[in-house]
Design a protein that fits this description.
By secondary structure, the protein is an all-beta fold. Helices cover 0% and strands 55% of the residues. The chain contains no helices and 37 strands. A hairpin with a 6-residue loop joins strand 11 and strand 12 (122-130).
Length: 456
């Protein structure tokens, strides 16, 4: 006999975790053998004492344990044509004077155990769900980028998993109703290369810099629960998609100053900054540019002049010489900016370069033949940010005869004239140069020459 009942929904949300148990006790019922995925006790909306969700029906044994010895019998009921059937006795299950009643489960559906002697017994009802019959599906994983729901490909994408599941019904022959179990599902997201996923929703948002910058396989693995207050279990049902991005990525500008090999130039390189004495040669490149970058656009702009002409390069790397042709008698600041791009996206970074102001000076005493090396005893100027082509220097003796001339500020005089050290005494020099900042330098000064006892 079957009865027709209204279908009700379980409305409270639930979570669960995959458990592989040999014996699991819930009240007085237990799954003695088999793989248990989920279970819930006293499901009030269903009227059942316990609902078991097993992975499949391979070697599943149900057990009821009583505190005292008594009589037991099992019956089976199910849902047919929208109705719950009347429990039908399983004759082989009748036992007497036992504390434990067991039943081998070969079919899903409802089971009722009758506890106690005839005429003085109670009944309890449970339901066994074969999850293999209701395995959900991840049908597809879709990435929305270009102009879909605000996504723009370059800084923001949306990813969505589409799933499908069959309805799970359970029935209670005592309360005369059928209940549709709500399938509470979530998505465990993963990807190669790895991204950070903070949500288990079916539709998620990813924002730069946590978006794919290289071809990325994004996978959705379904997790499910049927009961409240229990952790969801991974179903091992999954799907993925290969997303080919267009977003470009750039971490920073890399700047390496080419340092001159001389010992008389001040502030050739200032540690920690892109700063130094002009002419300052700097190699520029980028760090962290991804394979989606197709174009490089470099700009160099003097920051002191709003209408300064831009200098541009369309290379991934280059060398540039800064000379400070814009500021009179001051330091000069330049803005270096790079923009990497393709036909869809762009990214940029910038750095500042400072050229120190010019300087020129020289000593008024020289000890010829002094020092452990020939260079150590040389007469040299000290300088920074000079235009090398403007440098002129000359040293004269007391009678006005020129004993040394030079046109390179890096070089110096060792005190020799015609191959021999000059005599000690008072000489004088005239040195002129123009700074890269436009400053005119001219030094006229006596030079007192003293011979070291080591000189020959």
């Amino acid at each position: 006999m079957r009865k027709q009942f209204n279908i009700m929904n379980l409305t409270k949300p639930v979570l669960i975790t995959l458990c592989l148990l040999s014996t699991s006790v819930f009240a007085q019922f237990s799954l003695n053998t088999g793989t248990l995925l989920n279970s819930g006790d006293n499901i009030s909306a269903s009227g059942l004492d316990t609902i078991f969700v097993v992975q499949n029906l391979n070697n599943v044994t149900l057990q009821y344990t009583n505190s005292d010895t008594t009589d037991f019998s099992w019956s089976r009921f199910t849902i047919q044509d929208g109705a719950v059937t009347t429990p039908s006795l399983i004759p082989s299950s009748i036992v007497s004077n036992q504390k434990i009643a067991t039943l081998s489960i070969t079919e899903p559906g409802g089971y009722q155990v009758e506890i106690g002697p005839t005429g003085n017994s109670i009944t309890k009802q449970i339901w066994v769900i074969d999850y293999e019959e209701y395995t959900p599906r991840v049908d597809s994983v879709v990435v929305y980028d270009k102009s879909k729901d605000g996504a723009d490909s370059c800084s923001f994408i949306k990813v969505e998993a589409f799933t499908s599941s069959d309805t799970i019904l359970v029935g209670d022959p005592i309360q005369n109703k059928i209940v549709r179990l709500t399938r509470y599902q979530s998505i465990n997201w993963s990807s190669v290369p790895s991204l950070t996923f903070d949500s288990k929703e079916f539709k998620i948002n990813l924002f730069a810099p946590n978006i794919p910058y290289e071809d990325t396989r994004i996978k959705a693995t379904l997790a499910e629960s049927l009961f409240e207050g229990i952790t969801s279990f991974n179903t091992e049902v999954e799907n993925d998609t290969l997303y080919i991005p267009v977003a470009v990525k750039l971490e920073s500008i890399v700047a390496n100053i080419i340092e001159r090999d001389n010992n008389n130039e001040f502030e050739k390189v200032v540690t920690g900054d892109i700063k130094g004495s002009a002419p300052l040669n700097v190699d520029f490149s980028t760090k962290g540019a991804n394979s989606k970058v197709e174009f490089y656009d470099w700009e160099i702009l003097a920051m002191s002049e709003a209408d300064s002409q831009k200098i541009t390069f369309a290379l991934d790397s280059f060398r540039y010489e800064f000379r400070n042709d814009v500021n009179d008698n001051e330091e000069a600041d330049y803005l270096v900016r790079v923009t990497v791009s393709n036909d869809y996206c762009h990214a940029s970074d910038k750095e500042e370069v400072r050229i120190v102001s010019s300087y020129l000076d020289a000593a008024n005493i020289m000890i010829i033949g002094f020092g452990a090396s020939e260079e150590a005893g040389q007469f040299k100027v000290v300088y920074k940010s000079l235009k090398p082509e403007t440098f002129r220097g000359a040293i004269y003796n007391r009678w006005g005869r020129r004993v040394f001339t030079w046109t390179d500020p890096e070089l110096g005089w060792d005190g020799r004239y015609n191959g021999r050290y000059v005599s000690p005494g008072v000489y004088y020099y005239v040195i002129t140069a123009t700074g890269t900042d436009g400053e005119k330098w001219k030094i006229k000064r006596d030079l007192n020459i003293i011979r070291s006892k080591d000189s020959k």
